[in-house]
Amino acid sequence: FAPRSKSKQFLYSNLIGKFSPIDLLSSKIINLNEKEGILKDYFGSQRIIFPIFENGKIISFSGRTIIQNVEPRYKTLVCPFSSKVGVFNCSILKSNPKKIYICEGIIDSLTMIEMGFDTIGIIGTKVFGKENLDIFAGYSGDIVLLLDTDSNESGKKAARKIASLFHSNGMYSIYAKYIEKPELSNKMDINELYLKNKSIAFA
Fold first, then answer.
1. Phi, psi of 108, deg, nearest 5
2. Where on the phi/psi map is residue 116: left (φ > 0), alpha (ψ -120 to 50), or beta?
3. Which pLDDT tens digit goes with each residue over 36-51?
4. Does residue 202 register a pLDDT over 70?
5. In the 3-class helix/strand/coil scheme, how is the chain assigned residue by residue?
6. What is the per-residue burial (b if ≥16 Cβ within 10 Å, else e) of 34-60?
7. φ, ψ dihedrals at 199, nearest 5°
8. So what's the pLDDT on residue 201?
C-alpha cells in the first residue's frame, strides 16, 4: 500500500537504505523527475499495490487508486525481467475448475472471488495478448468473459477480441463467451454493482 503522503519520495526514502539508487531506477519503481531533479515514486500515494504472480514469481505490479475521480485508476509496472503484464490469480487454473470468469481489473476479480466464483483478472483488455495464453495450456473448462459495458461498446469489442484470440490459437477446448448484463450498462463496474446489490448473480 502506498499511503497518503505529501512527499513524492515516500517509498524511495524507505528503500534507499536497503537498495542502491541504480537498483531502484533499474526496477522502475523509482523514476527520475528531470524537471524537479529528484527521484520520485512510480505509484505515487494512496494506491493499493497488488503483485502479479506467474509460476511462483512476481512479474508485475498493479496499483489501484483509492481516491475517486483520479486517473489513471490503475498504474501497472512490469518487472525488468518480464516481457508481459500477466494476469491476476492465474494459479486458480492449476485446480482445473469447470468454469472460470475473466474480469477486467483486480478489484472486480476480488469481488467475484468473494461471491464464490473462480475468477482471473486481466490488467486491461489492451495488454491481454497471445503471450498470455500459455498459462491456459492444459485447461479444459469453460471461460466466461465478464467485461464492463459502456456507451461505445468497448467491453463487447474486447470480449470478442479475447474470445477470437483463444480460438485462433487452436484452443478449441475452451468455450469463451460474453455475458451481457443490463445492470452493467449504466457504467457501473462489478464491484460497484455488488456493493449496491449483494444478491446479484453472474452464473
1. -65, -40
2. left
3. 777 788 888 888 989 9
4. no
5. CECCCCCCCHHHHHHCCCCCHHHHHHHCCEEEECCCCEEEECCCCCEEEEEEEECCEEEEEEEEECCCCCCCCEEEEECCCCCCCCEECHHHHHHCCCEEEEEECHHHHHHHHHCCCCEEEECCHHHCCHHHHHHHCCCCCEEEECCCCCCCCHHHHHHHHHHHHHHHCCCCCCEEEECCCHHHCCCCCHHHHHHHCCCCCCC
6. eeeeebbbbbbbebebbebbbeeeebb
7. -95, 5
8. 64
How far apart CA 53 and CA 85 sit, in angstroms, is 10
Residue 90 has pLDDT above 80, yes or no: yes
Identify the residue whose cell numbers are 484452443: 171
Burial environment of residue 33 by CB neighbours within 10 A (0 to 12, 13 to 18, 19 or more): exposed
Question: Which residue, chain included where needed, has cell 483478472?
Answer: 121
In this predicted structure, what is the pLDDT of residue 183?
60
pTM listed for this prediction? 0.80
Amino acid 192: pLDDT: 80
